[in-house]
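Example record for the data management plan.
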Amino acid sequence: MKVEDIRWDTGEPDQDTEKQEPAAPSDVRRLPHAIVRDFSSQGFGALGDFKEGMSDLKDALEDIKSFGGPEARKKAERLIRSVDEFKPSITMIGQIKAGKTSLVNAMVGMPDLLPADVNPWTSVVTSLHLNAPVMPNGPTASFQLFDQEEWDHLVEKGGRLGELSSRAGADDEVEKVRDQIQQMREKTKARLGRKFELLLGQTHNYKYLDDALMQRYVCMGDDFDDPDMNDPQGQFADITKSADLNIKSPGVPIPLTIRDTPGVNDTFMMREQITINALRTSRICVVVLSATQALNSVDMGLIRLISNVKSREVIIFVNRIDELANPAQAVGEIRESILTTLADNNGPENLTVLFGSAYWANMALLGETADLDPESARALVEYGTAFGETDAEADPAVIWKLSGVPALFDAIGERVAEGEGEEMMRATRRRALNHLQGLQASSAIVSLRLEESELEMVDTPTLLASLDTTDARLLGEMDTALGQLFESYEARIDQAHKRFLDRALESLLEHLETKGENELWQYSPDGLRMLLRSSYQMMRKKAEHVTDAAYASAARAMTETYINMLSIKVDNFAVTPPEVPAFPPPVTLGQTIALDLQTAWWKGWWQRRRGYRTYADEFYKLIEAETAPMIHDMKVTQTSDIRRIALAELQDFLAEQRGILADVTQKSQISLGELQGLFGITAQEERDALFEILFEEFGSEEPEGFEDVSTVTPTRPSRPSRPTRPGP
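Corresponding structural encoding:
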């Protein structure tokens, strides 16, 4: 069946169409030029090393599976699965026409994957999941359409830009927005017919991916004035919100997600909000600029967004150096200009700035070096000569290197390995150490049972009741501590907001007194953003401290439970607390508000006011209303996310400990015959030797500030040789 042959079952108006999906052919299709040249392995040195570290960790977890019974195996398998499912994400943002989409296509080795000629009002964020595990019946491509509420917000209020225009009194702009929305609405309805309302909110899944499918959802149609259902190009582009594509990329060492966002400057500011949401769920941001435009003060939307992300997690890639007459000479000047612009506009410092050409990269992948544009070819030769590559034009591998994509891969790999990758490894080791501690306690009980020693242990109901009380206390204490922190933080946010409004009013009144009503006045909101950002950073550090202290308290409580439950003391025994999770950055601070708009936007508002008091009162109300969503996000959304993430990690830790303790108590109750082969290694000496090896492999360490409650802490002997791992 061809894509063009798919038809939609619209059903009756009272039927539930939310889960409606299109039929999909069973054949898997390939896009043209898919991975013609495989250069994707170049530049992933850091991720290659990280993958080796992941393999070593998984090998050590396999050792845990080799002894300890079925429950220990299940726990180890869950940890191995969590390592396999680690999938960092990279969000791509950038200027319009900077070649961001072409760069993404080059990065995944598929030059024709994402169309660059998207509809001007299309706001699709496309997530490319490279080498991600997919369920047997899972989709290769999935498209989420805007729901009714999102569509109504665009149509009735003109989206975010319509709200700004209305508040600022920009009547001309409001009318323009309304006209454009009406035009888009009529053409969309004409294209989709009576199915339009039923399609909103749906998710369309396909088991294949090809060029026609991409054009149907994310590429503009050829002629919107003459909608033709037989031509599927751009059929759903206006109402598509997001696309998820699963792609195999053999050269990429680990699973990655690359998110191609629609930019930050579109007609209705829908793209800005979508980009902000994408940044909240990614730890790494790649800002794509054009070498012919670089970065200037006009790109304040980009600067505002990246100012709220850690500088180590931002990479700037200057694309289109193939369009420069002398790229080798120009790159230094462009780099200096970018860093100066960032410094002058309170942007992040010490960013990594890379240079390259998505055009060169895609031509290298296609192997079409002879078809290079003559001007681009001359720039390539000049650039290659500066780096000692005298045969640049003829060798696709050299072109790929000069394109800058390998350097971009390397920078991404370093940040993954040093950032969330290392955090994932530490968290996994800590969880593994706790499983080992439980196994060691179980081993001690097994040894005593086999020696027919008398054990004094609490019964299971008593243990579970004690754990219920402990869990409730620990979760309650942490929630209370965070609540107190957030209460003082919210007060600081309110104070910062009021100080900003008061200073702005004072500036306005001074302007009116000295220059009168005939000269337009503007006031920058950067001061408010800096105050809010500073307050958030202070709160986040305190939240990390509160979370760390709560986790350490939980680990101490679990250690005491072990020791009080057992009639023996296990040497050097201490439960390891979980890793403090990363909290999302306050990227909403980067959204555009009325004060960011150009002077022309304020003329209507300014001209309709008469009298100083009217200016002051209405300005206060305008800016208060305009900044209210940002303040709400800082006070409610950000704190709710921190609370949810921190408590979820503690709940998972307590649930794991409950399972381990239940397993330990079980060892005191099963028959002696079952105990004989429980660990797969019957000799106590062999078990002890393997414990020593595993504790060292998982980096057993006492976290700072953690008080060991065990009474015996002997020095461990030198590392023995690894005993032979038993078979299944």
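Summary line stored alongside the record: The chain has 22 helices and nine strands.
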